[in-house]
Amino acid sequence: MIIAELAIFPTSEGASVSRYVKEAIRVIEKSGLRSETGGMSTTIETPDLETLFRVVKEAHQAILKMGAKRIHIDLRVDHRLDKEATIASKLCAVGKK
Question: Which end of the chain is flanked by fewer CB atoms within 10 Å, N or C?
Answer without folding.
Answer: C
